[in-house]
Design goal:
The protein is α+β, with helices and mostly antiparallel strands. The chain has one domain: Putative xylanase like domain (Putative xylanase fold), CATH 1.10.3670.10. Helices cover 40% and strands 18% of the residues. It contains eleven helices and ten strands. The strands form two sheets. Strands 3, 4, 5, 6, 7, 8, 9 and 10 form an eight-stranded antiparallel beta sheet that branches. Strands 1-2 form a two-stranded parallel sheet. It is globular, with a radius of gyration of 20 Å.
């Protein structure tokens, strides 16, 4: 009887070592400071779990003010481990982390593992991480797929215009992407994703009709600034706030080298000479 109990105990220990949660955590890249920052924000905002997610994501966004801007923090090879970096952000990882933190708070969780799970669901196609092409590299694709998951709504864009655009920047510029440069066999997969995205198109608010855009914009909206660069969909992204009776962008700024509130109103990003053609709205829902 004693030997049987020992055997069952060993099986239990082995089972712990190969459990899915521990196995997936081994594929995460983070530092102790990232865990501390995430759990600190989750605990801090847990008392506000009942407020609308649009308000929550804005407050969490403000908590990142002055965080250094750093581009290309997600690159880690073809295997695509989950990178969790709250110490330095680019425009996309800023909004992803804010949304993941807000969703975790709304779920009543304050632990790092729950946050990481939300981040993974947001960042990858259908919430499944599987090599480099599974990441939602194009922000319009990110918007479409996270709408499908029920994390955001893009219904507001229906009051704008449809853009039929060929999206192919990654497959036509593989040398600009280390993984595609090193693994050219992945270019075809990316090209197929681009074709599907091009066929879907996207609805947006062109900059020649700002009153229509402003009528449909709300504080807490995640927005993408649409691009006039061949093959690209969106140049930049951030979170909308209201200040001085106008809309401003809370974002990880490349020029400012940090997370900040833009010094000028949103309309400054939509001047006639700008490479930004308009705005797509991604409204967080929960």
């Amino acid at each position: 009887m004693k030997n049987i109990l020992v055997f069952l105990f060993l099986l239990f220990i082995i089972g712990l070592k190969i459990s899915p949660a521990q196995s997936s955590k081994a594929d995460w890249i983070f530092q102790t400071e990232d865990k501390r920052l995430a759990e600190g924000k989750l605990t801090r905002y847990s008392i506000k779990s009942t407020i609308p997610i649009s308000e929550l994501i804005t407050e969490i966004g403000f908590s990142f003010l002055e965080t250094p801007y750093t581009a290309a923090t997600l690159g880690n090879g073809l295997e695509e481990k989950l990178v969790i970096n709250l110490r330095e952000l680019d425009c996309t990882t800023f909004v992803e982390n804010c949304l993941a933190l807000a969703r975790t708070v709304k779920s009543g969780k304050t632990d790092f593992e729950s946050f990481a799970s939300e981040l993974e669901k947001i960042r990858y196609r259908d919430g499944k991480r599987n090599l480099y092409p599974s990441r939602l590299h194009y922000f319009s694709d990110w918007i479409h797929n996270n709408t499908k998951k029920g994390f955001i709504s893009e219904l507001s864009n229906q009051k704008g215009e449809m853009e039929a655009r060929t999206i192919n920047f990654m497959s036509t510029h593989p040398a600009s992407y280390p993984v595609l440069k090193e693994h050219p066999e992945q270019i075809q997969t990316i090209a197929e994703q681009e074709k599907l995205l091009s066929n879907i198109g996207f609805q947006y608010f062109p900059k020649n009709n700002l009153p229509n855009l402003y009528h449909n914009l709300q504080q807490g909206d995640i927005i993408g600034l649409t691009s006039n660069i061949d093959g690209l969909d969106i140049n930049h992204t951030g979170i909308i706030i209201r200040k001085n009776n106008d809309f401003y962008l809370l974002h990880a700024s490349q020029s400012g080298r940090k997370v900040m509130v833009a010094e000028e109103p949103l309309s400054a990003f939509l001047k006639p000479q700008s490479k930004n053609t308009g705005i797509m709205i991604a409204r967080p829902v929960f």
